[in-house]
User: Fold this.
Amino acid sequence: MILQHPVLLACGVSHAFGTRADSPPAALLRPRQVHGARVASAEECAAGAEADAVVVRARRSAIAVVTADCVPILASGEDGRAVAAIHAGWRGLAAGVVEAGIDALRRESEGLAVCAAVGPHIGPCCYEVDAPVLDALRHRFGADALADATRDARPGHWWLDLGALTRCALERAAVATEAIGTFADDCTACDAERFHSYRRDGPRSGRLVHWIKVHQS
Assistant:
């Protein structure tokens, strides 16, 4: 079953969040992901650009990012004429990749409202981090938002909700709350049947491919 979200279907865009069972389309354009905040065009991806967000308006281009616990975000202008794919781990969130990707999409959408879906990723049930990670995120999100996204684990460690921080970043980038879709209970580390997970499987883990294509009418 293809994993899609109603907020993007309402924009008329073809898309899918990856699972183990998927066969993604051929000729996807995706960047060389480096856990940063750079946004690339489809043309730059075809040339091997390093980036963690891709924005495209060209009708024949399907763009993608890959994950194995990080957060995938697929987004579209409300008319489906421009789309974005964003890869956000904790480093990307701290660097502002979500805001950068949405800002670039809004420019390509000529100021139209943006819809975004946050795909399956590692959940706060399984994602334990240490103080240096929280320090980096606190600089971007502030103490209050970070407190809402964490709970205590063992001494010096916390369980982190990457999805909560991603939604916070989307709202700060002026995406309306009702235009943000999620898959609330889909933890990649918990669900070995459907998802790859680096935290669970280590270097032998596969990758999930998340793709989106502009409206074709």
About this structure: Residues 6-122+163-213 form a domain with the CNF1/YfiH-like putative cysteine hydrolases fold (CATH 3.60.140.10). The chain has a mean pLDDT of 94. The first strand starts at residue 14 and ends at 16.
